[in-house]
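README, section 4: Worked example with a bound small molecule

Sections 1 through 3 covered apo chains. Here we extend the same pipeline to holo records, where the ligand is supplied as SMILES alongside the sequence. The molecule in this example is zinc ion. Nothing else about the input changes; the structure line simply encodes the ligand pose together with the chain.
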Amino acid sequence: MFVNFCLAAAKGSGDPGRRSHRLFLPPPQAAANLAGGPTARLDFGGSSLDSQERILRLEIIKVCRKLESRGLIAASDGNVSCRAGEDCILITPSGVSKGDMEVDEIAKTCMRGNLLEGPLRPSSEIRMHLLVYRMRPEVSAIVHAHPPVATALTLAGYPFNSKVLPEVWMMLGKVPVAPYATPSTDEVPKSIEPYIMDSRAILLERHGALTLGRSLMEAWMRMEKLEHCAKILFYASMLEDRTAPVALSEAEIAKLG
Ligand SMILES: [Zn+2]
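The generated complex, written as structure tokens:
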């Protein structure tokens, strides 16, 4: 069932906005209810696995290119994953510039993180992804990036209040900040564990952000929205208690015709 969501997003690549209301309206708990328990697990059955997996790999490449082009990652930052069957995931490899990544470089691992396919080691943050998949059966895709403004808010201790903008609240809900944890260690999954069940997006102090979705496109759009909101919060903070710019005099305006 959820793979259909994933694949629908992958196939309809050109216009995510038209799908967004369907994708975003159910809050996490409602989505969990919609999932309907064990019967709603991924079903890749049989010979169509290869083509479905290829679509997901292409979708990961697309999300990675978006992350890089929007400046949400730099160098080999970030990692993207999705479920690819009952007991495996696809995840970006470690140490690779995500904007230049090839389809065949994406790692396939079991749910314990052991490499099943791929020429490169899976992301060093794979434990964070696997913990989310174990705790949230309805989550089919995860995006981790280092969005600069959202991350800067965590450095400054400035609250990310998603209730200030209606669309942000509807799309992301409450966005907690997980305390600092040494990247690529077991500290990272431990730091996010208390927030996983009730969050669609989690800020990682001094590190970046994590967004969850029922499809790769949904997880990507949540990341994009998170950074967009962080920019608005930042601009608003710069304008607080400032006087508005002085307008041209009416006489000067009159000269303009
Ligand atoms: Zn990171």
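What to look for in the output: Residues 2-239 form a domain with the L-fuculose-1-phosphate Aldolase fold (CATH 3.40.225.10). Residues 1-48 have pLDDT under 50 and may be disordered.

Section 5 describes how to batch many such records.
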